[in-house]
Amino acid sequence: MRLRILGCSGGIGGANHTTAFLLNESVLIDAGTGLQALSLQEMLDIDHVFLTHAHFDHIACLPMLIDSVIGLRRYRPLYLHASTETLAILREHVFNWRIWPDFSLLPDESIAFLRYCPHEVGETREAAACRITALPARHTVPAVGFCLDSGNSSLVYSGDTVGCADFWDAVNAIGGLSTLIIETAFPDSEQGLAHASKHLCPATLQRELAHLERSAQILITHLKPADSDLIMQEIAAAGLPVRRLLAGETIEF
């Protein structure tokens, strides 16, 4: 399996683009501004989108993706996998005819461009020959992480979360874990903001990683652009065996 990192920043500006990962050409994990790195043909090849949650930095390019590929160039639907709560938020606040058309009804409901697929914590779906399981997460809105299982090894992506016991229980039960992608959005000087917005900072990352019972490559994502270097310096000072996830890299597992 190949996971291409299109965007992994906690914000935009310059080379910074928000979260979007491409799995084996046809599966998108989150749909932030990193999605614009793809060509039109690459976007046409996407059949499934899995969302961790409905915050704008993780869905910003989803409406434009659908708009760009519908019509004469594409006849098969796009399948959107997310929790029932996340799908409800998208229906009410995005695909509502006021912000963007409701593509689950176009051209009509029987042959709609967009298909909603509820995907709850603990449930596993197969897409592009990969088993994708929704993992528990704790954020300011309903959220999940994902375990991607290639059959040879597994990669876990935390999504946006402050961590929780259920998340670590699920991660520690995964056989063949090779990679953990986990967020750290703020420096320690903004720990109060991190706590209020339910994100990690280096100090809380250190406490959370103490729950990891398996050996794995640990990659840090979702750093706020203005503080990204400082965050990584604080993580290094804590002696944590991690590195920064980079846009443009491809992870094989």
UniProtKB/TrEMBL annotation:
Residues 17-222 form the Metallo-beta-lactamase domain. It comes from the Bacteria. Signal peptide: none annotated. Transmembrane segments: none annotated. GO terms for biological process: cAMP catabolic process. One of its GO terms (molecular function) is 3',5'-cyclic-AMP phosphodiesterase activity. PANTHER family: HYDROLASE C777.06C-RELATED (PTHR42663:SF6), HYDROLASE C777.06C-RELATED-RELATED (PTHR42663). This is Ribonuclease BN, tRNA processing enzyme. It comes from Formivibrio citricus.
